[in-house]
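#structure-requests
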Amino acid sequence: MSEAAQDIRLVITDFDGTIKPRLEPVGARDCQVLRQMGQLGLVRVVATGRSLVSFLRDWPPGMELDYLIYSSGLGLCHWTPDGPGEHIFAKTFTPSEQKLATQVALALDWGFIAFLAPPNSHSFYYFDPPHSPRTPGFQARLDQFSSVATPWSKVDPEVALAQILIMAPALGFSQLRDRFQALAPDLSLTQSSSPYGDNSQWLEIFPAGVSKGSASQALVERLGWDSQRAVAVGNDFNDEDLLAWAGRGFVVANAPSELLAKFEALAVGDSALAQVWRAIS
C-alpha cells in the first residue's frame, strides 16, 4: 500500500447505481474488495438513500460492512454479520419543521410521499393532487409498496415524519427545487434521478443538517478522524455533498455530467470499488 493510501481509514460507497446495478445484485468483485479492505483495517461504510428495510431486502449476506448510513443520512448504525446493530442516531423533523415541510409541499401542489420516522421510514403517506399528473415513478412506487402506503387524507397529525419526497418531470424541476428552498430555507434538500427510468427527478426534503456528508462527518468525529482520511464513491446528485466532503471523491462513468466535471471519474467495465482500491493503493 502506498504512503498516501496508509492515511486512508474510511471508505464510503453509495449503493444503487454504484455497487448495485439497477436490476442485479451487488457484484462478487465488490464484495471481495470490501473483504480485502476490512482485512487491512479500513472502516467500510455504505451510504444509501434507501430506508433500512429496503436496504435489508437487497443486502447480500456475504457483503462485509462496518457501518450503514441510510435514508440519505437520516440514520446511522453499526453493521454486523447478521445485519443492523447499534443505532448511533435516527433523525426526524422537529414539529415546526414537519409543519413547514408539509405546508410547502401541499402548496406546491405536486404529488409527494411523506415517510415515517426511522426505523419505519419505509412506510409512508402519499398526497395525490387532482390537478397534477402522476409521474410513472410515482405510480410505480405506490404499486410496489402498496402494503405500507396510506393516503394523505388519513394522515395522523401526531405521527412523526422524517422525509418528504416530491417526484417531478426533469423539465421545470430546478424551478420547483428553488421554490421549495425559498419557502423553507432551513430544511435540507437533495436531488436524485428516479430509479424507475421515467426521466423524472426526485426532490428529497429532510430535517435541517441531514445529508450523507453530515452523517459521515458525525461518524469520523466518533472515530477520532477527519474527512481527509475518507474516500467516497457515488453516482448521483444526492452523493455530491459526500463526495465533496471526503478527502477523495470518485463517481461512476455514467454519473451526471455535472458530477463528472467535479470528481474523479471511474471507467466503464470494472467494479467501482476495485477501481477505487487501485487508485488509492
